[in-house]
Amino acid sequence: MCRWFNSALGHQISHSLALSLFDRWFKAARVESTIANAPANATLETAGAVAGSADLAAPRLDVDEPPIDAQSVRDIVRIEEIADAEFFVGDLFRRRFGTDPPDFPNHYVAFYRHGRTRYLPVGYVHFTPFEDMYLGGGMVIDERLYRRMPAAHRKLVKDAGGIAETMLRETLARLSHAPAVWGYVGDKQAEEVDLRAGFRHTGHQYVVVVWNRELSAEEKAARLQRVIALGAF
Fold first, then answer.
1. pLDDT of the chain along its 233 residues, tens only?
2. What is the CATH code for 63-228?
């Protein structure tokens, strides 16, 4: 009896294993066939979507990702130069200024890294080339996104001086090849941020500057007058 039972059980297990292996092989073959026979103009993504009927697992949504364990602001905020401001910050810019963002260089966006693969624009600033210098302006911060950050992330940003100061320090470093970078500020809070980031007063009520070269007082004064003649920027 035991001998027959063990033999029958072994046969049943072998049969089940064979069916399981065949089922896996069949599904894999069906996926390969679906992708191989997809239209010539189909992308791997669309072919994979069709093959979803073969029990392909759906990728996890990035919104499900937990916040990353950051140790410094550089773990969660990265400044990048971009070519198209409208694509990344068009709505944010219009909400602040009521008009479209500039469509000419140079655009810098601060991206906030919430999860390992989730990046959101949280700030923007623009620098217009002028002679061999730059004129900074158009800064905007997404305070709504800042308020939604986890408390630990907000603390790291605050300890670094905030999004605006972090963004200015990074962009000014990248533009340090220019003899001078100028700013035009009429808001007291924005002025304080500019000064912390490296700008200095010029004697003009609204114009501030970062000097990156040793220039004579006459040369500095001449450059300042040419910038003042531009008006607000």
1. 433 333 433 444 344 434 443 344 444 444 344 444 544 444 434 434 433 443 445 444 455 689 999 999 999 999 999 999 999 999 999 999 999 999 999 999 999 999 999 999 999 999 999 999 999 999 999 999 999 999 999 999 999 999 999 999 999 999 999 999 999 999 999 999 999 999 999 999 999 999 999 999 999 999 999 999 999 99
2. 3.40.630.30
Say if strands 180-184 and 133-141 run parallel, antiparallel, or are unpaired. Answer: parallel
The closest alpha carbon to 183, from 207, 212, 211, 213, belongs to 207
**What is the DSSP track for 44-108?**
HHHHHHHGGGG-PPPPPPGGGPPPP--SSGGGTEEEEEES-HHHHHHHHHHHHHSSPPPSSS-EE
Tell me which residue of 116, 125, 122, 119 sits closest to 81, measured CA to CA. Answer: 125
Tokens of 87: 């694509």
Structure tokens at 230: 């531009």
Query: Are the C-beta atoms of residues 168 and 127 closer than 8 Å to each other?
Result: no
Q: Where are any strands of DSSP class E within 92-229?
A: 107-115, 118-130, 133-141, 180-184, 200-201, 207-211
Task: Choose among 14, 11, 52: nearest CA to 31.
Answer: 52
Which residues, including other chains, have CB under 8 Å from residue 89's CB and lie 6 or more apart?
Answer: 101, 109, 121, 124, 140
Q: What end-to-end distance do the CA atoms of the chain give, in Å? A: 96
